[in-house]
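User: My advisor, Dr. K., asked me to get a structural model of this assembly before our group meeting. I'm new to this, so sorry if the format is off. These are the inputs:
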Amino acid sequence: MIDSIRRHPLIAVVVAFLALFILLGSFPIIPETKQAVVVRFGKPVRILGRYEAGRPIGGAGAGISWRIPFVEQLVWIDKRVQNVDMQRQQVLSTDQRRLQVDAFARYRIVDPLLMYIRAGNEQQLTEQLRPILGSEVRNELGRIEFAQLLTPERQGIMNDVRTSLNRIALQYGVEVLDVRIKRTDLPDGAPLSSAFDRMRTAREQEARSIRAEGAKRAAIIQAEADANAAKTYAASFGKDPDFYDFYRAMQSYRSTFVGEANKPVASTTVVLSPQNDYLKEFSGRAR
Amino acid sequence: MDILTGWGGRIRGLFADTKGPWGSSGSDGGDDASPSGGDGGKSGNPWGDAPKRGRRPGLGGANVSSLDDLLRRGRARFGGDGGGLPGRPAGSLIIWAIVAALLLWLISTSFHAISPGQRGVVTQFGRYSRTLGPGVSFTLPSPIEQVTKLDVENIRSIDMGAEGSDDLMLTGDQNLLDLAYSVRWNIANPERYLFQMDQPDETIREVAESSMRAVISQVSLNDAMGDRRAEIETQVAENMQRILNSYRSGIQVQGIAIKQADPPDAVNDAFKQVTAAQQDAQTYINNANAYALQLGQKAQGEATSFDKVYEQYKLAPDVTRKRMYYETMEQVLSKVDKTIVEAPGVNSYLPLPQLQKGQQPPQPERAQ
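Assistant: The format is fine. Below is the predicted structure of the whole assembly, which you can bring to the meeting.
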């Protein structure tokens, strides 16, 4: 034996690898993330590493398994939570407003056999689930008003979508865990620009009302100041109105004819008659 | 066929794990088929150079000749005379070489150094068996047990809604908001992270986007841009965590940071106007306050000075009044041009003071 290996190392190695392959092919390793449908001449016979809810990681399922080489083929199917993204959909709410909606669903293949029979492989499954998700979302959202879409109730609506999507998905051996709206946008064009217009005018209105409010408060402050000043003056000058008249007249003359250092007044010519009170002493005491 | 590729990956992994006993350097054509055993001693890695690792073993010639090479090299190392012919009996050397390779492979796939902050998830024939903590750990060699190392302490960050792009969100009052934020997360449970989710990163993105939009759609634009940001951040983080937990994803959301919450570019000017209006309003009020202060002080000053004078005036009203009158008239009349007309009814046709001033240029004066 060793002699023949030495003589034909190439052939020996090929034979060894072939043997290894047959051996390895007979005992496939099922990873934690996968399940496999064993197909014997096109007929699915059993499932390896099937997902079961509640089974802890590291429990039965994954691990080393067996198959008849060449006779049985394995079809690998993912066991993990997977994602299907809806294409952007235009949804018309009951109050005739358009909205662009993006949603996604998370699902898990719980019955790989059913999924293999109905959809074939995972890619085709996604292709089939996507339009169903889209139409379910459109149907459910078309039943509510635009404003409701923006409220906490929308998660309840999404639960309805999930329930009805799940009903269909179960036919593919798929369990839908969750359907969520990713984004809701106003469609480009008229709806978006009118929303911008509304925002703009709302802001302009706000700006005006802020200015008006400021002006109002300023006016009130000024009026209060005027009133306070008047009160102060009245309290003081009211003690002797006659003297105030005289006192103020004197002040007034001074500021009118003399001015202050930094505020000179235009030169004035005063024509006095001797009868003037100021000149009464001109005519002498004998008058 | 699927199983073949499966094993292929496994073997590939094994080769990648196992550094050749002669290192991967100095490779001068490991698959040189000519039987020159003497030179073989310094030829490269027995598994050929990197690109060949991808090849499926047993199908291409490369692996076979690599093995040949290995045998040859073995002979050379263990006292081969350099002129070794193919097929030369050297059984013990072959066995030695195989033992050495096995040993190396055992060591390199059984010892695992896990750095702090990392965890090693051990799978035994694909089934999860345990998680290794930091430090050096032993496992069974590679095809039986495999270790996947994961950074669990490392907090990763995902940026959502790139700055500058117009990524608009609808707010509760049906306005639009341009929002950019980042999500910080780490792995809380490495085995769940590995085995439960198909695309964990993509999932985090979508869940973040969904949660953020759900929360934003319940607050008003001003709240989102203003003081309720922190509240929104916590709410989104909690929401995300709840959803991710429901997927059993093993992901811990550390926090959300809103980096930018602005009105859309199209209406930004209007928003700036609001800010300007706030400034204006404040200016009005400041001016009014200044006026009020000034007026109040002036009134008090005048009232007080009147009071002071009045106190003195009360003591001697007549004299004080006369004194004030004369003083004032003195000041006034000393500054003005005076014309005294003796006889009543006579008007001075000539403005005498002007003549007296002589050469002085006539000043523009109001008619007297």
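One thing worth pointing out at the meeting: Residues 156-263 of chain B form a domain with the Tetrahydropterin Synthase; Chain A fold (CATH 3.30.479.30).

User: Perfect, thanks a lot.
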